[in-house]
Amino acid sequence: MSEAILDAQDRLVINALQGGFPICDRPYLEAGAALGMGEDELITRIDGMLKSGVLSRFGPLVNAERMGGGLTLAALSVPQDDFERVAELVNAHPEIAHNYEREHEYNMWFVIATETRQEIEKIINAIENETGLSVLNVPKMEEFFIGLKFEV
Amino acid sequence: MVASTIMARANHKLSDFAVSDDELALLEALCTGLPLDPRPYNVLGARLGMSEAGVISALESLIERNIIRRFGVVVQHRRLGYTANAMVVWDIPDEMVDEIGRRMGEFDFVTLCYQRPRRLPDWPYNLFCMVHGAKREIVLSQVRELADKLGINDIPNEVLFSNRQFKQRGARYTNGEKR
């Protein structure tokens, strides 16, 4: 994936709006004013960056677990020549939120997000049956920080 | 990095997290993103049969109760030049993990920090953090800085760089009975 080309104004928008967005009648007007740009310009810039893929989402980050959902991080140790096939099997489950190949004996790491906590085990069992591999399941015990904020 | 995004051990009761049908409908409507309209909360309200003021107060309440933990833009970090993405895992003695985890989360380049269970004998690590950078050498030097400053140089760690991202979808927020 190539690095996106952003101008100074785009960078301002990204740096400011990762931290929050106003909840009021005219939020683009209010957020834009703080950045020295008009309402229309802010809307156009957000729209452009969503379309170009610089922004993956614009909206709330929800604490899904607290609403009764299940969430866990899981990993597989996949033989290299079987990697693509296993990736397809795992990703076929809509409950897989994202999946990364990493350089380690455990080379496939994915997040499972389900509507209920009980479903996590079902998905793990299904993946084990389908792939013949054993899943490393490491749910969060304590959260120390979730900044996930990138300066650009 | 903004300290106000620290979410460690928020003082919330479980009952704070129950959501009403209206709130759930609102969260579902927001899955595709906030409308790019000068009055986005009005647009959402019209879609859901709620007033603009009702949408605004519902969102304020969801944020207050920490059901919405952040409201804003989410970047695709690879497109911003953060191409080196490492999950760094540590085997921290249990009695130290709270303090080390908390201090680790204070470093600017640490974007996530979680305690997770060891799975012996396959997996000895109990503290996970994410470090993103433009280059691997930078990320590795940041990991050394973490170990130095936290005094955990002799504690085993591994750095798992990612090669490829297969899948990323926005989470969907529904509860079990609906849908």
Explain this structure:
The complex is a heterodimer of chains A (152) and B (179). Chain A has 152 residues and is an alpha+beta fold. Chain A has 2 domains: 8-52, no CATH class; 64-137, Alpha-Beta Plaits (2-Layer Sandwich), CATH 3.30.70. Chain A is 36% helix and 24% strand. Chain A has 5 helices and 6 strands, in the order H-H-H-E-E-H-E-E-H-E-E. Chain A has helices at 8-17, 27-35, 39-52, 83-91, 119-131, and strands at residues 55-62, 70-76, 96-102, 108-114, 136-137, 142-146. Chain A has a 4-stranded antiparallel beta sheet with strand order 3-4-2-5. In chain A, strand 3 and strand 4 (108-114) form a beta hairpin. In chain A, helix 2 (27-35) packs across helix 3 (39-52). Chain B is of the alpha+beta class and 179 residues long. Chain B folds into 2 domains: 18-74, Arc Repressor Mutant, subunit A (Orthogonal Bundle), CATH 1.10.10; 77-161, 2-Layer Sandwich (Alpha-Beta Plaits). In chain B, 31% of the residues lie in helices and 22% in strands. Chain B has 5 helices and 5 strands, in the order αααββαββαβ. Chain B has a 4-stranded antiparallel beta sheet with strand order 3-4-2-5. In chain B, helix 1 packs across helix 2 (40-48). Chain B is elongated and about 60 Å long. The two termini of chain B are 37 Å apart. Mean pLDDT of chain B is 84; it is low at 1-14 and 170-179. The interface between A and B is large, with 77 and 90 residues.
